[in-house]
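Q: What changes when S-adenosylmethionine is included in the input?
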Amino acid sequence: MKDKTPHPKKSLGQNFLQDPNIIRKIVKAIQPRSDETIVEIGPGRGAITSYLAGKCRDLILIEFDQDLADALKEEYEADRHVRIIRDDILKTDWKDFLPADKVVGNLPYNISSQILFTLYSHAPEVGEAVFMVQKEFARRLVAEPSTKDYGIMTILTRLYGKAEILFHIPPTVFFPRPKVDSTLVKIRLDPDKNRDIDDKAFFHQLVRTAFNQRRKTLRNSLKKITEDQPMLSVDLSLRAEALTFEDFKRLYHILK
Ligand code: SAM
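A: The predicted holo structure follows.
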């Protein structure tokens, strides 16, 4: 694709993939199929895009950078299966392009959490996500209780689906090189999972409140929510990080 952006913009997390072998490995993990709708967040200069176009039924590209979006429009002008939305992925209305079989992308790392929260709020309309994220962030999605990576992101990922680490990627395959290692993750979203948690907003509030003061015991951090009710099957002398996902579910049902 013709590049009209003189300098990659750090503020937009622009680290472009350069290595064709890695790009092919990412596309293999995405496994585009001819009957699928795929959404790509931050297509940039089209490194992954060029391997997806023509391999799926519909391809929707959401790019914030005006110059890059213009170049993509020019590139895919004749392809009626490719649609380009020039917008901020955090502000655009996802209803405009969902449902989708897959949402993919080499994400701008500074907004990865917000993108995942938005994805989860649309979980029933997405089959799976394949994202490149910062390695430390990926660890949070699959962390075990009582580890430093375990937190809100871990629990919410379990609430909506299941994350899997596919492989790690060194800074050398990007231009410019980021200061961190990257990881490709797959998140399978399952609309039938945890249907018993019908008030997702309350579950989110519970998890956030518990982890926002993660050094405190649950008795203290959840005081306002529990109103000192005795938690028969959950030990309130523990900290949030010691609770499994199932413990959080139990807590939710007791309080609901
Ligand atoms: N997919 C390309 C690649 O792998 O080479 C570019 C990936 S680069 C890490 C992130 C891309 O996301 C950039 O193209 C950037 O302009 C775009 N971007 C940054 N913030 C965005 C936002 N809020 N909404 C949509 N796209 C965004």
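Observations recorded in class: The chain has two domains: 10-189, 200-255.
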